[in-house]
């Protein structure tokens, strides 16, 4: 199973039939509860974290579904979270990795890069891959 599909379980979605099914579901907009679920695992004590993904005013206007763009950020975060948890073998260690500055990311926090865009997420995935496979980091 790919990291993409592994991330879907953190969003409370039933297992997608395929990666393309998951892409379609994200493009259509994920349920607001998906945001709540990923925030609960990634930043359980930060009550404002969800507003980094969906602006506060937009969040309160959304009733059931998020936009495709917001859903894409959530899916990206979920896939990186799945990899981080696998590499670090505990939610606390994964959270610590995502929230501390890393030298291979020019002292930026991985979570900030993941939320910024897909290129940032790929850089974080690369660091996680190096950690997982024993490269120097």
Quick recap of the structure?
This protein is an all-alpha fold and 137 residues long. It has eight helices and no strands. The chain has one domain.
Order of helices and strands: HHHHHHHH
**Radius of gyration of CA atoms, rounded to a whole number:** 14 Å
Q: Strand percentage, roughly?
A: under 5%
Structural class: mainly alpha
Number of strands: 0
Mean pLDDT: 91
Q: How many domain modules?
A: 1
Uncertain ranges: none
H/I helix tally = 8
Distance between the termini: 26 Å
The major sheet is characterized as:
none
Instruction: State the share of residues found in helices, binned by percent.
Output: 55-70%
What is the general shape? globular
Key terms for this structure?
mainly alpha; 0% strand; 137 residues; 64% helix; globular
Could you explain how this protein is built, in words?
This protein has 137 residues and is an all-alpha fold. It has one domain. The chain is built from 8 helices and no strands. It has helices at residues 3-10, 19-28, 32-42, 56-61, 68-88, 91-99, 110-116, 118-132. Helix 3 packs parallel to helix 5, helix 5 packs antiparallel against helix 7 and helix 7 packs antiparallel against helix 8. 32% of the residues are buried.
Give the SSE layout.
Blueprint: H1 3-10, H2 19-28, H3 32-42, H4 56-61, H5 68-88, H6 91-99, H7 110-116, H8 118-132
Helix pairs in contact: 1-5, 3-5, 5-6, 5-7, 5-8, 7-8
């Amino acid at each position: 199973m790919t990291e993409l599909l592994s991330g879907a379980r953190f969003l409370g979605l039933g297992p997608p039939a395929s990666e393309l099914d998951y892409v379609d579901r994200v493009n259509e907009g994920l349920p607001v509860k998906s945001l709540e679920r990923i925030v609960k695992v990634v930043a359980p004590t930060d009550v404002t974290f969800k507003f980094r993904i969906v602006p506060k005013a937009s969040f309160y206007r959304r009733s059931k579904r998020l936009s495709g763009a917001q859903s894409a950020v959530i899916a990206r975060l979920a896939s990186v979270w799945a990899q981080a948890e696998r590499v670090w073998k505990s939610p606390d260690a994964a959270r610590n990795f995502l929230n501390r500055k890393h030298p291979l990311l020019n002292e930026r926090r991985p979570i900030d890069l993941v939320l910024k865009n897909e290129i940032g997420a790929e850089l974080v995935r690369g660091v996680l891959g190096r950690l997982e496979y024993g490269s120097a980091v």
